[in-house]
């Protein structure tokens, strides 16, 4: 049986600069060190590049305590940075995205196995949340998932 400690991880804006908080316990006197020793940067892997994945990717571009290190999507155009087909119910449509320095995976399990990803941001349909959250936690990753965590538990 897998024992899971549920923690709250969030992306938040605090007195101007963006920081990551929650399980990373970041504040003015502490610094997160990623698995590769990259000081001060939480390396984010986004699973799912639809409207929410695009929204989270765009928001992460403004973080001072983290960066997107990897994405996972089965869509080959999106892996190449062509996000023009993404449109949600608010905000502008996506366009061409510069993915320089961002690794792309067609299978999210490969992203979960990447030692250079500290936090997995799950941007999938709700019915897929539970499985991917549990797999990410089992892989030793911090997880960001929006409610609901599952359709039913």
Sheet bearing the most strands, described? 5 strands, parallel
Structural class: alpha/beta
Provide the gyration radius in Å. Answer: 15 Å
Oligomeric organization of the protein chains: single chain
> Which H/E pattern describes the elements?
EEEHEHEHEHE
Question: pLDDT average, as an integer?
Answer: 79
Number of strands: 7
Give the overall shape, derived from the CA principal axes: globular
The DSSP helix count reads 4
Output the keywords.
single chain; 153 residues; alpha/beta; two-stranded antiparallel sheet; 4 helices; globular; disordered N terminus
Textual characterization of the structure:
The chain has 153 residues and is α/β, with parallel strands linked by helices. 21% of the residues lie in helices and 21% in strands. Strands 5-4-3-6-7 form a five-stranded parallel sheet, with helices on both faces. A two-stranded antiparallel ribbon has the order 1-2. The protein is globular, with a radius of gyration of 15 Å. The N terminus is likely disordered.
Describe the structure concisely:
The chain is of the alpha/beta class and 153 residues long. The chain has helices at 51-60, 76-79, 108-112, 126-138; strands spanning 10-13, 18-21, 42-47, 66-72, 103-105, 119-122, 142-145. Helices cover 21% and strands 21% of the residues.
